[in-house]
């Protein structure tokens, strides 16, 4: 299945992309997606614990099972206002 | 009427005031967050705001809905600017109307605190000494426990 992944702020600087399409096995979770990204970007694994994850624009836990076409975003601690 | 928007354009306080105000209101409380020229004494040249626009607008509306549950208010308007902002410019504007002043005063204070916890917007500071960094909020903030 294909997942759309969005990166913002410091995570975007680290990964080098604002948006990416990632292929995952059916039944994969957010944790599996993180593991795949960490393999390509060593520092991502260090950053991951401080990130929130949204799936289809709602904050969701790491064990969330992903589905074809989901939009996942990695969200650093917010600093708006 | 209500309005929740993340925008590139300059924020106009008078326009939002008109959007939220109805004939039955006796008060409009407005809060503007502005770009300060320093952070703890280190000179700031300008700020850059980034947002997850669609989700941020959805979270702003959730804040508005929460305010309406808690206080006797009429309309809520929240605008957040993105892109490059210069010193003195408005980064965020909240306007809340209510029949009586106490409700909108309290709701407005709550709204800006909540915004800083849950809305996916990020600020990059670019300092006058040439340094720059994305600012990260408090990771223990209640965005973790949101239902």
Protein architecture, described:
- The complex is a heterodimer of chains A (81) and B (147).
- Chain A has 81 residues and is an alpha+beta fold.
- Chain A has one domain (2-75): Beta-grasp domain (Ubiquitin-like (UB roll), Roll).
- Chain A is 30% helix and 27% strand.
- Chain A has three helices and five strands.
- Chain A has helices spanning 9-15, 30-40, 42-47, and strands at residues 2-7, 19-23, 52-55, 58-59, 71-75.
- Chain A has a five-stranded mixed β-sheet.
- By secondary structure, chain B is of the alpha+beta class.
- Chain B has a single domain (3-133), classed as Aldehyde Oxidoreductase, domain 3.
- Chain B is built from three helices and nine strands; from the N terminus they run E-H-E-E-E-H-E-E-E-H-E-E.
- Chain B has helices at 13-20, 53-70, 101-118, and strands spanning 3-7, 27-34, 38-39, 42-51, 76-81, 83-86, 90-98, 121-127, 132-135.
- In chain B, strands 3, 4, 6, 8 and 9 form a five-stranded antiparallel β-sheet that branches. Chain B has a four-stranded mixed β-sheet with strand order 1-5-7-2, with helices on both faces.
- In chain B, strand 3 (38-39) and strand 4 form a beta hairpin.
- In chain B, helix 2 packs antiparallel against helix 3 (101-118).
- The radius of gyration of chain B is 16 Å and the shape is elongated.
- The model of chain B is unreliable at 141-147 (pLDDT under 50).
- The chains are: A alpha+beta (81), B alpha+beta (147).
- The interface between A and B is medium-sized, with 19 and 33 residues.
């Amino acid at each position: 299945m294909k997942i759309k992944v969005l990166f913002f702020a410091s995570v975007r600087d680290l990964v080098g992309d604002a948006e990416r399409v990632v292929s995952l096995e059916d039944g994969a979770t957010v944790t599996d997606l993180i593991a795949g990204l960490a393999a390509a970007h060593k520092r991502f694994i260090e950053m991951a614990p401080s990130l929130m994850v949204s799936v289809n624009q709602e904050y969701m836990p790491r064990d969330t099972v992903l589905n074809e076409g989901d939009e996942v975003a990695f969200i650093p601690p917010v600093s708006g206002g | 009427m209500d309005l929740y928007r993340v925008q590139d354009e300059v924020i106009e306080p008078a326009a939002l005031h008109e959007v939220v105000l109805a004939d039955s209101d006796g008060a409009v409380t407005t809060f503007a967050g502005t770009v300060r020229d320093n952070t703890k004494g280190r000179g700031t040249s300008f700020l850059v705001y980034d947002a997850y626009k669609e989700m941020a607008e959805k979270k702003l509306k959730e804040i508005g809905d929460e305010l309406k549950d808690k206080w006797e208010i009429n309309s809520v308007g929240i605008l957040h600017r993105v892109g490059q902002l210069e010193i003195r410019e408005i980064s965020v504007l909240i306007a809340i109307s209510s029949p009586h002043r106490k409700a909108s005063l309290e709701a407005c204070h709550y709204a800006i605190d909540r915004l800083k916890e849950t809305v996916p917007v990020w600020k990059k500071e670019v300092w006058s000494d040439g340094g720059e960094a994305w600012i990260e909020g408090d990771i223990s903030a209640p965005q973790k426990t949101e239902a």
